[in-house]
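Ligand: fe (iii) ion. Inputs:
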Amino acid sequence: MAKRGDYVIDQGWSAYTGEHHAIWRTLFERQAKLLPGRACGEYLRGLAQLGVAADGIPDFERLSDILEPATGWRIVAVPGLVPDETFFRHLANRRFPATNWIRAPEQMDYLQEPDVFHDVLGHVPMLIHPVFADYLAAYGRGGLKAAGLGALHRLSRLYWYTVEFGLIRRPEGLRIYGSGILSSRTESVYCLDDPRPRRLAFDLRRVMRTEYRIDRFQDTYFVIDGFDQLFEATRPDFTPLYSELEDLPDIAPDCTVPGDRGVPIELAA
Ligand code: HBI
Ligand code: FE
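Predicted complex:
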């Protein structure tokens, strides 16, 4: 099928082979063992509601038909990373661009690019949560605006430290809602159990100043108190914030600065 301007392609669900589905099953079963008690309840409920399971790579149309009546989102297939503006435009219009291919058997533990397992197991279940669903659409609108203001890096950091690598505080302890963690066997354990990384209370300015690395476990995680906090913190127009931040230095991923509020690791137990 010809590529369109929005990079949307046909998922080609019937072209997946038994081997593709078997890779999905292996990846799914590993996470299904780890995530109860580590992932937040909203995510686990989303997974169940959408019927994302071990049997194989889901059909995006079937997922969309469950998601759309709930929060207005649909899943569209893309060949991989798409340009920022294309990505933001999809999100702003409540279309989640999901990669249609699955990793090779040699890449079970790590790859830098998104594949269908990361996109569907990691991102899609959160889209059935109404507040998160609104947050992600607002993020898309903010992205289009940030691109025009030369502040794309600020918004990429926000996406990275929330949508991809966010933690949430619950009475029972810290839980994961970030997709980059949810789809990783090793980081879903590391982010909660390892004493090394910083776990800091979410602070929008701090997040927007913090650089990130895409090639290793995170040095710093930001912890929200609830999805309402995230949505409310990101509701105001960021234009004045971007100019304010221009005068402040960036913060390296493995640094602690005055004012940081650490979240105790016991909470993760
Ligand atoms: N494209 N398919 C896809 N998936 C992403 O997560 C993605 C992208 N393009 C750009 C992009 N992410 C990042 O620049 C987001 O910040 C912000
Ligand atoms: Fe992702």
